[in-house]
Write a structure and sequence with these properties.
It is built from one helix and two strands, in the order H-E-E. By secondary structure, it is of the alpha+beta class. The protein has a single domain (about 15-55), classed as GMP Synthetase, Chain A, domain 3, CATH 3.30.300. The chain has a two-stranded antiparallel ribbon. It has one helix spanning about 15-35; strands at about 40-45, 50-55. Helix content is about 30%, strand content about 30%. Strand 1 (about 40-45) and strand 2 (about 50-55) form a beta hairpin.
């Protein structure tokens, strides 16, 4: 059986990295208020637009 290994890498400034930073900031903010927060956040970016979707539950 032949198996293939692939991986993906993106450079700094790539939209995926920007989305991760925005989502991480939301998670960090929620956890600073309530360490037991539940956070599910998706961030999407395109030209001149940022869309966030998800939910945050905390005290």
């Amino acid at each position: 059986m032949i198996s293939y290994f692939t991986s993906e890498s993106v450079a700094s400034g790539h939209p995926d990295k920007i989305c991760d930073q925005i989502s991480d900031a939301i998670v960090d903010a929620a956890l600073s208020v309530d360490p037991f927060s539940r956070v599910a956040v998706e961030t999407l970016v395109t030209t001149n637009r940022i869309v966030m979707a998800g939910e945050v539950t905390c005290k």
